[in-house]
Design brief:
alpha+beta; globular
Length: 89
């Protein structure tokens, strides 16, 4: 494994750990602010759907999307958290 592969592997591991923490924290937050959304997530998981946490990067902002996806790859967005990317200047 070369230096670039090692850097990618390290970054991917850190990203997975951070994403897991973010996912768990968002579930706790949902329990507090919107139990109905949390209930929808639970129902989707019980129905065999998967829960996805997406980070969409754009030049001016980033968005975190919490959604469920069924076996037919149909996504249902449960919660969208808009954000802003830091200035590149």
């Amino acid at each position: 494994m070369d230096e670039i592969d090692q850097a990618v592997d390290l970054a991917a591991k850190a990203f997975r750990e951070t994403a897991t923490l973010l996912n768990n924290t968002l579930l706790v937050k949902l329990q507090t602010i919107s139990p109905d959304i949390l209930a929808k997530a639970g129902q989707a998981l019980e129905a065999g759907e998967r829960l996805e946490l997406l980070v969409q990067f754009e030049t001016s902002s980033s968005t975190i999307v919490f959604r469920t996806v069924d076996d037919y790859e149909r996504a249902k967005i449960l919660w969208t958290i808009p954000g802003r990317m830091p200035s590149l200047n």
